[in-house]
Amino acid sequence: MLDSRIRPLIDPPLNALGRGLARKGVSANGVTLMGLVFGLCAAAALALQQFYLGLLLVLLSRLADGLDGAVARASQKTRFGGYLDITCDFLFYGAIPMAFVWADPTSNGAAGAWLLTSFYFNGATFLGYAVLAEQQGMETRERGSKSLYFAGGLLEGTETIGFFVALCLWPAFFAPMAWVFGALCFVTAGLRILLARQMFDPRD
Fold it and tell me: How far is 123 from 58, CA to CA, in rounded Å?
């Protein structure tokens, strides 16, 4: 919901940094993988209940996630680069909730399972919509230049990162926050299915 509003604010500095990295020979895929390394290290820190370190690494991971596209735009965009980016994103988004479950399985296990299931379902509707949009030749730049069609929703990347930051700052409240955020993910996925039916069902 917030991605289209925040992109005009963050894209100019990211693009400037991306051009500088591209001139130094840094590859977009390398930045993507570095972001994944930061993300997995964040998960490890959170599992060990090092929550402020985890927060720093989460933010570094998402900075790299924004920079890889900027480097690609300044050098050469590839379909594999987009594929690698979304694959690493999904691993990151699954690793962070898992880390909180590992940090306190008794208190966080049920809520973590609910949250991960909602992520799985929401991700499926997102990728499925992107496939159908690609087949129809649809394009959008509201959320920046992307390799995949990004269908908007109630919860998008900005909201998810804000949620992860909140979890790092208030880890004792993981369970109630996970129940609520997971429910909103299910709502987002359901709304996307209704949108897909409206957009792609020839009977309508």
Answer: 20
